[in-house]
Inverse folding.
């Protein structure tokens, strides 16, 4: 082999092998290292591999010795089960002798740990039973030489533990931990491994004796390694011994000894991490008296350290806080139900309160507050689950009143902790610190939502009181934090009328007058959160119109402030939508304010769209309908200005400016249309004076109204210069759709011909064509509903254009999104417009073969969504029409199905035979079920498909007998939904070879 000028050949001697190993551990080109490693692996797999490793163990280089130990591991994994008993015992003695010798020579941890791993591999892979590996290795370490297993079996683990020196004990602890760790990865359900796991139930006796001795020794390293080994054994026991209490008890007997390490100042942090790990992952490992012991340690030793760390702002307090949290979560039932009788319960609650009272900001120097949320979430969840699982007639738990008092205190502590830092602190924060504080606030409000379930309006009153008190004292950061909490509770508060009077304390206060006074120095965040509250509580303000003047004045003043403009625009939109009927008298003022706003610095696409939509919502509430014309035209004038400016920019070849203004104008128009829709929750007044009399057209069908619609449609002229801009196309689609949802004539209920004309101006290269196709689909669907007007002429024109797109595409893979949109249009023809492609001699009927072939090829395409749409199209086409159809229509459809049935059957069988994806089977079943249930000739087609060369090219894993059985089952089910899907899945699996056979 050659690699960058370096020749690599198989080693011919031990010296050459040692040289190769050394080169392997030196920095160098990756290709050379790989070649060297390959040669060594080739050699170690040979019969001489044992001798190579044995000889290399004498090397003076640590890396060479590590490789030798690894060679034994590889050989044992490959050849271990094939060894005879004598050879296996020889290898066992060799491994132990090297471990003993190297330990006496002061070998480093890397090689010793690797040898421990190799001994574990021997334990697992050897054909001979190694009954007491820990004792055998331990006695050999103690005697200084490898002894036989029989000699070691007479020594008790307790006596051995006393005889070992600290370094030997550490090695034995490493071996013990490696055993538990590596055996835990073996599947206990296999016969070979189940024996290994049964043996571990005996080995744990020796392991526990060694660990008990390790915890008693004064040597710090021994106790530290003992803790690690203890955790490894506990982790092994959790999944393996849930029903082996005898084996588990050996480890539980160690808890008291291990817990004493929690008191040791030197190892306390390590011990805290290990006990926290077990508390979090294996709570049931601890029995009640163990929890009592840990509770005492918590109160006597952890609590003082944590309190001191909180006082000093010392980050070293984190492990203590984590232990408190883990203990509290593990014992949440006692903490909730016995806070006054359990000393540890009181300690846990008190410390978590202290954590939240401590100085610092979450996400910055205060990590404990973030962590504390986990405990409180568990606490509140337990309270809610217990209370709401009770029967209605049961009395509340005796502890509930105390829990409520705890949660009331918690709300105030969270509120205080959520106050934003002063600017001089926040400006020095990193992005991560800002994000950490933000996450804490969000986590805290999520927690408050859970608390609100328990406390209800008492909590609402508490927050309102905090707002008013902070407002009186001009503590704006405290006001903002309480408003932030109130905002998070909006949905819950508005569901219950009980909070109406309480909310009056906020909305009837001077709050919004003061934050609306921009001469006052108030943090922007406080104003921004006040704006959010108005957007969230629009339903409340709608019922209390007396609060509208202050709130609306504040929002429009905020709209002129750069930092607040976007937030204000969003809340203006929400508030005006909710309170539209109460704001009709202010419409003139709003229009004037909007005009003034447009010339200001905060007028941008987002704010313009939101505010113009807000004003449109108020216009919608005007009565009679004719009253809407003048203000609506005033809004349209602004859109027309944007459209005209966009055309002017385009004429000057400034396409960036044209796109910005043109898209903004269309988006504003779409927002007007959306907000002019009748709200779902507003009742229709059947006594409206403006309602047309029978036989008379409504207002929006009058000549005056048509003039408004002409102005709206005139805005589409911007597409003459922006026809290749995807955002403009998308915005135009939104304008059209805004009228589709209306059930009565209105300004945006445009003639269907407008959508048709829009589609006809597109080509397959038009950006966002899929959005235009989707708009056409919605139009067809709306005019297919019961009671709607049928539009066959317009639908026919749509289909002709879409068929032209299909012919231009040629294949669905050319553009899967457009292909799906095209097929979806034809899916929408069923049931009311399906006759259109079958009108003899029409242009659409001549395009039909191309459409049908396109959909068939789409089922075989690799693209998911066209495939699904095509399968839906054929399923709809095959099923009998559920409406009274025109003369001969069903016969025309039947002729098409007859012409294409065999081809469709072959495509479906090839997909179900393994060519398709398993996730698509349910979609492919739809046309298959339709064929079987409705077409007598389907059996012959499916049989021909199953036995065709086309199917054989997909799979040869199913026999002719299995194919016939599949066909017989399909035909017998007659399109039964669930059972057909089950049969298809089974056949698919057989064709793919993921089951042994089908049948």
């Amino acid at each position: 082999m050659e690699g960058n000028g370096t020749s690599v050949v198989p080693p011919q001697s031990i010296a050459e092998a040692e040289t190769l190993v050394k080169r392997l551990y030196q920095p160098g080109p990756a290709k050379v290292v790989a070649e060297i490693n390959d040669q060594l692996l080739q050699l170690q797999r040979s019969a001489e591999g044992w001798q190579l490793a044995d000889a290399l163990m004498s090397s003076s280089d640590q890396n060479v010795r590590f490789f030798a130990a690894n060679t034994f591991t590889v050989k044992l994994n490959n050849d271990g089960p094939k060894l005879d008993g004598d050879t296996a015992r020889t290898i066992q003695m060799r491994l132990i002798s090297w471990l003993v010798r190297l330990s006496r020579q002061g070998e480093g941890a890397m090689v010793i740990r690797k040898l421990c791993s190799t001994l574990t591999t021997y334990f697992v892979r050897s054909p001979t039973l190694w009954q007491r590996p820990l004792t055998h290795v331990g006695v050999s370490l103690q005697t200084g030489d490898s002894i036989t297993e029989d000699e070691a079996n007479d020594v008790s683990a307790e006596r051995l533990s006393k005889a070992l020196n600290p370094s030997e004990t550490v090695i034995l602890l490493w071996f013990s931990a490696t055993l538990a760790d590596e055996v835990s990865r073996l599947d206990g359900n296999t016969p070979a491994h189940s024996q290994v796991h049964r043996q571990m139930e005996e080995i744990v006796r020796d392991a526990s004796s060694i660990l008990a001795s390790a915890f008693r020794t004064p040597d710090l390293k021994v106790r530290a390694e003992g803790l690690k080994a203890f955790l490894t054994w506990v982790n092994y026991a959790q999944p393996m011994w849930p029903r082996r209490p005898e084996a588990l008890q050996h480890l539980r007997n160690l808890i008291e000894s291990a817990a004493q390490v929690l008191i040791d100042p030197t190892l306390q942090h390590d011990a805290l991490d290990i006990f926290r790990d077990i508390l979090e992952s294996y709570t049931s490992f601890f029995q009640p008296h163990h929890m009592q012991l840990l509770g005492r340690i918590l109160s006597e030793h952890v609590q003082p350290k944590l309190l001191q760390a909180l006082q000093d702002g010392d980050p070293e307090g984190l492990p203590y806080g984590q232990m408190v949290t883990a203990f509290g979560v593990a014992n949440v039932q006692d903490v909730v139900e016995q806070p006054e009788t359990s000393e540890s319960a009181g300690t846990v609650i008190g410390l978590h309160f202290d954590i939240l009272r401590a100085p610092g900001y979450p996400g910055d120097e205060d990590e404990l507050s973030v962590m504390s949320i986990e405990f409180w979430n568990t606490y509140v969840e337990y309270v809610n689950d217990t209370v709401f699982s009770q029967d209605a007639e049961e009395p509340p738990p005796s502890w509930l009143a105390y829990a409520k008092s705890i949660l009331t205190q918690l709300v105030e502590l969270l509120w205080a902790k959520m106050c934003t830092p002063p600017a001089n602190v926040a400006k020095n924060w990193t992005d991560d610190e800002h994000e950490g504080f933000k996450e804490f606030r969000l986590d805290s409000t999520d927690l408050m939502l859970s608390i609100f379930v328990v406390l209800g309006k008492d909590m609402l009153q508490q927050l309102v009181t905090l707002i008013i008190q902070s407002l009186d004292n001009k503590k704006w950061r405290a006001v903002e934090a309480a408003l932030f909490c109130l905002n998070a509770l909006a949905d819950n508060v508005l569901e219950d009328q009980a909070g109406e009077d309480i909310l009056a304390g906020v909305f009837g206060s001077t709050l919004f007058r003061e934050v609306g006074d921009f001469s006052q120095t108030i943090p922007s965040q406080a104003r921004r959160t006040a704006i959010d509250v108005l957007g969230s509580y629009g339903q409340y303000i709608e019922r209390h119109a007396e609060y509208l003047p202050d709130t609306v004045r504040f929002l429009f003043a905020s709209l002129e402030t750069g930092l607040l403009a976007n937030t204000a625009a969003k809340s203006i939109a929400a508030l005006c939508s909710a309170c539209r009927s109460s704001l009709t008298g202010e419409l003139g003022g709003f229009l004037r304010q909007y005009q003034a706003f447009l010339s200001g610095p905060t007028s941008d696409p987002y704010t313009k769209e939101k505010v113009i939509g807000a004003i449109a919502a108020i216009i919608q509430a005007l009565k009679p309908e004719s009253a809407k014309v003048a203000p609506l035209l005033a809004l349209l004038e602004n859109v027309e200005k944007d459209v005209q400016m966009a055309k002017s920019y385009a004429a000057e070849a400034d396409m960036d400016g044209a796109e910005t203004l043109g898209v903004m104008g269309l988006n504003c128009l779409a927002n007007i249309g959306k907000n002019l829709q009748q709200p779902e929750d507003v009742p229709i007044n059947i006594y409206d004076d403006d309602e047309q009399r029978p036989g008379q057209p409504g207002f929006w069908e009058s000549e005056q109204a048509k003039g408004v619609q002409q102005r709206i449609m005139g805005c589409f002229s911007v597409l003459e210069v922006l026809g290749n801009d995807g955002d403009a196309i998308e915005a135009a689609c939104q304008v059209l759709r805004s009228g589709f949802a209306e059930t009565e004539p209105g300004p945006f209920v445009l003639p269907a011909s407008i959508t048709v004309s829009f589609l006809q101006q597109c080509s397959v290269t038009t950006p966002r064509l899929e959005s235009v196709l989707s708009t056409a689909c919605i139009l067809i669907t709306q005019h297919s509903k019961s009671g709607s007007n049928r539009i066959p002429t317009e639908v026919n024109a749509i289909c002709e254009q879409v068929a032209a797109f299909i012919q231009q595409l040629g294949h669905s893979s050319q553009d899967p999104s457009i292909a799906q949109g095209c097929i979806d249009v034809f899916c929408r023809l069923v049931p009311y417009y399906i006759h259109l492609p079958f009108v003899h001699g029409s242009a659409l009927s001549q395009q039909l073969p191309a459409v049908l072939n396109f959909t068939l090829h789409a089922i075989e395409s690799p693209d998911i969504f066209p495939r699904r749409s095509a399968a839906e199209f054929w399923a709809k086409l095959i099923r009998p029409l559920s409406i009274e159809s025109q003369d001969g229509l069903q016969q025309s459809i039947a002729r098409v199905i007859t012409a294409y049935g065999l081809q469709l059957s072959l495509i479906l069988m090839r997909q179900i035979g393994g060519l398709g994806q398993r996730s698509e089977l349910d979609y492919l079943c739809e046309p298959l079920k339709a064929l079987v249930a409705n077409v007598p000739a389907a059996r012959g087609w499916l049989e021909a498909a199953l036995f065709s060369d086309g199917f054989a090219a997909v799979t040869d894993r199913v026999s002719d007998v299995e194919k016939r059985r599949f066909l017989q089952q399909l035909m017998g089910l007659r399109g039964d939904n669930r059972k057909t899907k089950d049969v298809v899945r089974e056949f698919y699996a057989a064709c793919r070879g993921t089951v042994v056979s089908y049948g």
